[in-house]
Specification:
heterodimer, A: alpha/beta, Aspartate Aminotransferase, domain 2, Aspartate Aminotransferase, domain 1, seven-stranded mixed sheet, 13 strands, 41% helix, 14% strand, B: alpha+beta, Sufe protein. Chain: A, Arc Repressor Mutant, subunit A, 2 domains, 5 strands
Chain lengths: 382, 201
């Protein structure tokens, strides 16, 4: 199996599994307990909090709150920010956010909030002037992702933060789920107020996330109950998962695989563009403006789901921007916002690499892909 | 649910390409899912399908459905092909069953076939050089027969005409023409008996 779908989820790293294993077997206890076992668990959480804080450059470990997933972090940040500014009813976000933010903003709109959804260029980049124009005195929140999950295009979080803090007193929330572990992040040098991350995108298990909350920002909890996480997020701490997230952050921080992943991605992308006709990359090719592991490629005039199924039959896992949802099969909002031509959006495939991909796997992918596309192109009615 | 047949037809689709000339082409597309398809039929003098080919950019179910349909209509008459195109269950059963949320993919495939048959029918009608103008090309029903049937039985709808003389029971391309004839000549005679439904259309 060749796994090129690391933006969807990642395999749990052996280092992560090894760190978690004791907490799933001999070491147990409720970290809220005062006895030895409880203290041991609390210590494990403290270590993990330091590891997460180190990876994203938090100024203090108290800025990290563990949650169950990225979506919870996003939901809490957005709902909490709005509750903290009850007089302000305007939100600025983008057309290309992950569903966790996009669908929540749609819901908030129906609840009476006014939403400004910033568009993107054909390269998937944000126009910062439109952000400047969108900010108002009654803007409660700006929620803009760091890396787009489909194209890997990066938004300039530092610059956005400066604009938001200069032009408004809105909170600045960042969905950082797709970026953490893939690029260096230093939140203390930015104006970011809240930053969501998810463990399973960086080789921790599914079911663990975190929200970075800048010091001084008190958010009303989303989940009310016990006093866990300093009263900010109730629910018994999932110690094994938290330890796993910490270990995954440590692994990403100390790892030297990033350059190798980038060069494999570049090879894959370059070869596809040169050997297969009617192909184009969705998302900017400018250096440093796209995640180094992601390549979203349109195979024009053929169907993305067909490509996916043929690759799957060849043992290669990818995803498509035209996923067939039960009754509708619309091109992704991200590609739509980028004005990708219809026949190109229908044939878009996302390759997202990870630390376990080898050059042999990329070569194998490059060897089977042209035949698949040729076969489908012969069938194309266009 | 048995998906074997979908998978077989998807990974090894039959009859991809274009039928030999002279061929008749049907195209269909879905605004909802973005799929696009075409079928071309080479049709012999006895209204028989000599060759059926398709092309498609759409999901696996659409591809499998078109592949299956080209097999099903091979050597059939256009009337039989039209009947196949209108029968939802026939294709679903031929594909071994499907989840309901994918029925629309098979509908698009059947519509592609029907449009190809209609393209043939429209051409055949306009090229017809017999004594009587031909209206229903699938069942070879002339204008005069339809007129007489409408008059004699006092028919008011296309469905009634189809029941009475088969006209319009195939691809449906002549429905508009039949309706126009009803509008011009059709006066239901008081007390005229409705024709009983035909069983073997």
């Amino acid at each position: 199996m060749i796994y090129l779908d690391n933006n969807a989820t990642t395999r749990v790293a052996p280092e992560v599994f090894n760190a978690m294993q004791p907490y799933l077997t001999e070491i147990f206890g409720n970290p809220s307990s005062t006895h030895t076992l409880g203290r041991q668990m609390k210590q494990a959480i403290d270590v993990a909090r330091e590891q997460v804080a180190a990876l994203i450059g938090a100024a203090d470990t108290s800025e990290i709150v563990f949650t169950s997933c990225g979506s919870e972090s996003d939901n809490w940040a957005i709902r909490g920010a709005l509750s903290a500014k009850p007089d302000k009813k305007h939100i600025v976000t983008t057309q290309v956010e992950h569903e966790a933010v996009r669908n929540l903003c749609d819901l908030l709109e129906s609840e009476g909030y006014e939403i400004t959804r910033l568009g993107v260029s054909e390269n998937g980049e944000l126009d910062l002037n439109s952000l400047r124009d969108a900010l108002r005195h009654d803007t409660a929140l700006v929620s803009i992702m760091l890396a787009n999950n489909e194209t890997g295009v990066l938004f300039p979080m530092e610059e956005i933060g400066r604009i938001v803090s200069e032009k408004s007193d809105a909170f600045f929330h960042v969905d950082g789920v797709q970026a953490v572990g893939k690029i260096p992040i230093d939140l203390k040098s930015t104006e970011v107020d809240m930053f969501a991350l998810s463990g399973h995108k960086l080789h921790a298990p599914q079911g663990i996330g975190a929200l970075y909350l800048r010091q001084g920002i008190g958010l009303q909890p989303l989940i009310v109950g016990g006093g866990q996480e300093s009263g900010r997020r109730a629910g018994t701490s999932a110690v094994p998962n938290i330890v796993g997230l910490g270990a995954a952050c440590k692994l990403a921080n100390e790892s030297d695989v990033h350059e190798r992943i980038a060069s494999l991605r570049d090879k894959l992308e370059r070869q596809i563009l040169t050997t297969i006709s009617n192909t184009l990359v969705n998302g900017t090719s400018a250096a440093g403006k796209r995640l180094p592991n992601t390549s979203n490629i349109s195979f024009q005039y053929v169907d993305g789901q067909n490509i996916l199924l043929h690759l799957d039959a060849a043992g290669i896992c990818v995803s498509t921007g035209s996923a067939c949802h039960s009754t509708t099969r619309e091109a992704s909002p991200t590609l739509k916002a980028m004005n990708v031509p219809y026949t190109a959006a229908q044939g878009s495939i996302r390759f997202s690499l990870g630390r376990y991909n080898t050059e042999a796997e990329i070569d194998r992918t490059l060897s089977v892909l042209p035949g698949i596309i040729k076969k489908l192109a012969e069938m194309s009615p266009y | 649910m048995n998906q074997e047949s979908i998978s077989q037809h998807f990974f090894a689709p039959r009859n991809v390409g274009d039928a030999h000339e002279p061929s008749f082409i049907g195209r269909a597309a879905s605004l909802r899912c973005g799929a696009s398809s075409r079928m071309s039929l080479q049709i012999g003098e006895a209204n028989n399908i000599i060759e059926a080919k398709f092309k498609a950019a759409g999901c696996n179910v659409l591809v499998a459905s078109l592949s299956k349909l080209t097999e099903l209509v091979q050597d059939k008459t256009t009337a039989e092909a039209a009947t196949i195109g209108q029968d939802e269950d026939l294709l679903l059963n031929a594909l071994g069953g499907l989840e309901p949320d994918r029925f629309s993919c098979t509908t698009l495939a059947r519509e592609t076939l029907l449009r190809a048959v209609r393209a043939y029918s429209d051409a055949a009608r306009s090229e017809w050089i017999g004594d009587q103008a031909l209206i229903c090309t699938c069942f070879c029903v002339s204008e005069r027969t339809i007129e007489e049937t409408i008059h004699d039985c006092g028919l008011m709808t296309v469905t009634e005409v189809t029941r009475a003389c088969y006209a319009g029971g195939g691809c449906g391309s002549c429905h508009q023409l039949i309706q126009e004839m009803i509008d011009s000549f059709g006066v239901r005679r008081p007390g005229a008996a409705l024709v009983s439904p035909s069983e073997d259309v």
